C-alpha cells in the first residue's frame, strides 16, 4: 500500500509552484471563507469524481484545518492509487498565517 508524506507549508508552497494539485477537505463554509489559491474543495460527495479524473502520479497536497484530518484523507488517496500524496502540517491555519497572499475566498466551483 502506498503511503503519504507529511510536509511543511514551505515544502507545500514549493510543490504547488511546480504544479502539485491542492485539495482542501474542510467544510464548504470554511473553504468559501478562505482557502489556498488554486485549491479544489473535496468532500464525501465529490471525492469519487475527483479520483476518477485525477492524474494518480501527480503530486497531491491535502489540507484541512490544522493538519490532522488531512493525514487520514491523504492515506485514503494513497490507498486509492495516488503515488505522490502529502498532508500539509499545520493545515490551512498555518498556511494562512505563513502565506496570507497565497489565499483566496469564494465558493467551491
Automatic annotation (TrEMBL):
<comment type="function">
    <text>Transferase that catalyzes the transfer of sulfur from thiosulfate to thiophilic acceptors such as cyanide or dithiols. May function in a CysM-independent thiosulfate assimilation pathway by catalyzing the conversion of thiosulfate to sulfite, which can then be used for L-cysteine biosynthesis.</text>
</comment>
<keyword id="KW-0963">Cytoplasm</keyword>
<dbReference type="GO" id="GO:0005737">
    <property type="term" value="C:cytoplasm"/>
</dbReference>
<feature type="active site" description="Cysteine persulfide intermediate">
    <location>
        <position position="64"/>
    </location>
</feature>
<dbReference type="GO" id="GO:0103041">
    <property type="term" value="F:thiosulfate-thioredoxin sulfurtransferase activity"/>
</dbReference>
<protein>
    <recommendedName>
        <fullName>Thiosulfate sulfurtransferase GlpE</fullName>
        <ecNumber>2.8.1.1</ecNumber>
    </recommendedName>
</protein>
<dbReference type="InterPro" id="IPR001763">
    <property type="entry name" value="Rhodanese-like_dom"/>
</dbReference>
<dbReference type="InterPro" id="IPR036873">
    <property type="entry name" value="Rhodanese-like_dom_sf"/>
</dbReference>
<keyword id="KW-0808">Transferase</keyword>
<comment type="similarity">
    <text>Belongs to the GlpE family.</text>
</comment>
<feature type="domain" description="Rhodanese">
    <location>
        <begin position="16"/>
        <end position="104"/>
    </location>
</feature>
<dbReference type="Pfam" id="PF00581">
    <property type="entry name" value="Rhodanese"/>
</dbReference>
<dbReference type="InterPro" id="IPR050229">
    <property type="entry name" value="GlpE_sulfurtransferase"/>
</dbReference>
<dbReference type="InterPro" id="IPR023695">
    <property type="entry name" value="Thiosulf_sulfurTrfase"/>
</dbReference>
<dbReference type="GO" id="GO:0004792">
    <property type="term" value="F:thiosulfate-cyanide sulfurtransferase activity"/>
</dbReference>
Amino acid at each position: 500500500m502506498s503511503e503519504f508524506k507529511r510536509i511543511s507549508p514551505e515544502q507545500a508552497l514549493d510543490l504547488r509552484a511546480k504544479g502539485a494539485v491542492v485539495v482542501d477537505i474542510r467544510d464548504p463554509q470554511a473553504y468559501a471563507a478562505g482557502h489556498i489559491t488554486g485549491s479544489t474543495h473535496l468532500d464525501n460527495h465529490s471525492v469519487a469524481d475527483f479520483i476518477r479524473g485525477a492524474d494518480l502520479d501527480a503530486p497531491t497536497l491535502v489540507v484541512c484545518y490544522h493538519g490532522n484530518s488531512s493525514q487520514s484523507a491523504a492515506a485514503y488517496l494513497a490507498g486509492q492509487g495516488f503515488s505522490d500524496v502529502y498532508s500539509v502540517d499545520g493545515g490551512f491555519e498555518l498556511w494562512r498565517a505563513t502565506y496570507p497572499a497565497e489565499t483566496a475566498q469564494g465558493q467551491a466551483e
